[in-house]
């Protein structure tokens, strides 16, 4: 019997919080290696990154600067994959790559589809976790956008997550006083004890504005924001003169089918001469390899704590992905097939 290629398709545009009914399991035949044309690859996906912004790609946003997943097509996702068959001269069967894939077991990558070859000493968990694009986002957002100086007071929201935990520790390595904002006592204690941040605020049980006033009596130099909404507002109200806000994500709004409210008092930014800049990790693609080397050095020196939450099973992909939005995962959320 012909082996089947399981796919998770986006069945409808989600409204509010994701539901299992937004997705449908589908089977197609596995593409035959003999059907490949010049430049094509047959990939077998082994691991997917669960990235919150994929929720944005599920919306119908024709004018947006991000992709839109067509209905009844596999959900787009960053992947770690094995080359099963190759019609590219520089890649042979058995090579391992990272790529922009989709929720299916097998996928044909076209001649112009970019893949990054992994060296033998890097596992999929490392390549998609502590050396993956979230880690690079934390690194570039902090180093290139927020530009922390030694002694700066730095606040990071979503600090216990994949991106935030790297951003916060990069600032700590630069000699800053770093405060993380995260949900729940366990995440806050990980930030203080393993990531060695100076303080952590549990936004689920504490008043963020009041805690920022206590912890940053002279104000905030840098705010690295993964969340938006009320947390962003609380930080804006405490920014120091010439402070920098790096806008990395707005996860508080991803499930709401509309943008989360921005800061209420923009005059605060004007009087404070505060810079607020959005960025994408792709803006720095030319420097990714150098940043990975720097991260590897810091990891080897014991300066960066990280954790990956690897869930198993293709059938559970939608459920795994949904844990991003209830905070029940720990660190980079990966789905192994
Ligand atoms: N600009 C870029 O190029 C770029 C690249 C990658 C990621 N990002 C952004 O970075 C952010 C973090 O992504 P990640 O992949 O590293 O995920 P993550 O932080 O590992 O996981 C998401 C975390 O967000 C928190 N969260 C979920 N819903 C929330 C809500 N309604 N309000 C407040 N917090 C909420 C939860 O942490 P708690 O338990 O602490 O609440 C959850 O664990 C996202 O906004 C993402 O879009 C941006």
Question: What would your notes on this structure say?
Answer:
By secondary structure, the protein is of the alpha/beta class. Helices cover 26% and strands 27% of the residues. The chain has 11 helices and 15 strands. It has helices at residues 54-57, 124-128, 133-146, 162-173, 185-193, 208-215, 229-236, 251-254, 266-271, 288-300, 317-322; strands at residues 4-10, 23-29, 41-49, 76-86, 96-102, 106-109, 115-117, 153-157, 177-182, 199-202, 220-225, 239-247, 275-278, 308-312, 332-336. Strands 3, 4, 5, 6, 7, 14 and 15 form a 7-stranded mixed beta sheet that branches. Strand 8 (153-157), helix 4 and strand 9 (177-182) form a beta-alpha-beta unit. Helix 3 crosses helix 4 (162-173) and helix 3 packs across helix 10 (288-300). The protein is globular. The model has no long low-confidence stretch (mean pLDDT 96). Bound molecules: NADP nicotinamide-adenine-dinucleotide phosphate (NAP). Residues 51-53, 134, 137, 158, 160-164, 182-184, 187, 226-227, 248-249, 251-252, 279-281, 324-325, 327, 329 line the site of NADP nicotinamide-adenine-dinucleotide phosphate.
Compose a concise summary of this entry.
The chain is 26% helix and 27% strand. The chain has helices at 54-57, 124-128, 133-146, 162-173, 185-193, 208-215, 229-236, 251-254, 266-271, 288-300, 317-322; strands at residues 4-10, 23-29, 41-49, 76-86, 96-102, 106-109, 115-117, 153-157, 177-182, 199-202, 220-225, 239-247, 275-278, 308-312, 332-336. NADP nicotinamide-adenine-dinucleotide phosphate (NAP) is lined by residues 51-53, 134, 137, 158, 160-164, 182-184, 187, 226-227, 248-249, 251-252, 279-281, 324-325, 327, 329.
